[in-house]
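Self-study notes.
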Amino acid sequence: MIYQAVILAAGMGTRLGKFPWPKPLTPLADGRTIMRQQMDNLQQAFGSQLRVTTVVGFKLESILEAFPDVSYAYNESFDQTNTNRSLLKALRQSGEGGVLWLNGDVVFDPKVLEPVKSLIDSDRSFVCVNTAAVGDEEVKYRVDTDGYINALSKQVTPALGEAVGINFVSQSDKAALIRGLERCADNDYFERGIEIAIETEGLQVLPLDITEFFVVEVDFAEDLTRANEHL
């Protein structure tokens, strides 16, 4: 079995501050970059069966030089669009099978990928969630009576928890998600594409609770401090 993983790394990452590198190449306390930590975790979990595609845009040359042995998709409108367009590029380019995707700024415990791999093997679409926190700036979620996600955005209230930036779409659901992403506005996050596919295609997406593991999206300086303290 081939495991397809996508890292969304096209954005400018301005909230973290101005640096001479794209945010996924931000150095961590253990000497690695955010993306190197992601790659190491993915390779540890999936081994030689892993195929990675990275979506690039802002300062793409730096990422290509750092990771020459993966595939790439180019979001040429990285400064005018949001993550929905980057994910759409990657899904259209993907091969047969489901796709695991990560935001390019997520630092996480490699043990997160144990329940992730188990659910991928059953080919069920999911969004990893943390039920211990519901931050104002984070993407939050609710579920329907069957336990599937029915709302996924920063505006959800009341919310059960927040999405952490690690997600999977099954082979059977991929076309529906692509259509949902196609209906997004340029500045929508990819989560809006998931919502549209839920609303219009009946897409069923499970919330995968990974609260017991460390995960942080490095949006601000305090997030980077948390990541480094964990490492």
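Second protein, same conventions, sequence then structure:
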Amino acid sequence: MKIGMVGLGKMGANMTVRLLEKGHEVVAFDLSPEARDSVSQKGAVPAASLDELVGHLDPPRVAWVMVPAGAPTDRTVESLKGLMSQGDVVIDGGNSNYKEAAPTAASLAEKGIAFIDAGTSGGIWGLTEGYCLMVGGTPEAVAVCEPVFKALAPEGGYAHVGPVGAGHFVKMVHNGIEYGLMQAYAEGFEVMHQADEFELDLHQVASIWRYGSVVRSWLLDLTERALAPGSGFENIEGYVVDSGEGRWTALEAIDRGVPAPVITLALYQRFASRDPDSYANRLVAALRNQFGGHAVRTEPRSGAPS
């Protein structure tokens, strides 16, 4: 089928190429002419504007939005609303908050345009490995787009998980779980890193755990790659950002009265990683010194008296 891809970043560009390789036609738009040129060389039809993109599509027209969540997605969807018509479908494949899906669907429905929220996982490996797709929307809208979903996903990696909002909800929880898994691996390897007496080769450990171990996973495969000689791991700063979905998962757990300590603490650890001069940590050290005489480490800090 023919589909419009809006946003040609790391995900959108690779998704475009995968669809082309699976025999679909893709009309591609991005604000960057270089991004448009890149996918056009792979067979996509470049569009210099959303208007041009919609003009190249055949009814029922389908546009997949792969731009950053929030205002960029909102603006894009609103623009598509003005250009598309009855029977067309807009897919949001970004990391939008699931609570925004129902209002977006209601707005598009004013013109008879259907909305699908497609939780999309796979990262930069999706081109070759396929994308896990968690899709929310009406059965009718999903049926229109299903050939594309099946082309993007590996065998067994796509499901229509529920009504509008369900796709982004499931993807949100997926990312929350991801936070916890990565934190568990990180803490375990930190413990082994501190065991100087064994002189452990942590790349070797990560490598053997991938075979037969109960903790083997794709994230462990990536751990092995990250720790491989020559990977540059020793130059990486321990500053960890969060995409927002870990926060939303923690807040959702609070709202629903669900204990989720692992996910929540993993999120807090990301916050902690961003402040090498944490006031809280310095106060804890000072208190330990006050009540127990425990030694403190002192060094001049930027903007503070030495």
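Instructor comment on the second fold: The chain is about 50% helix and 15% strand.
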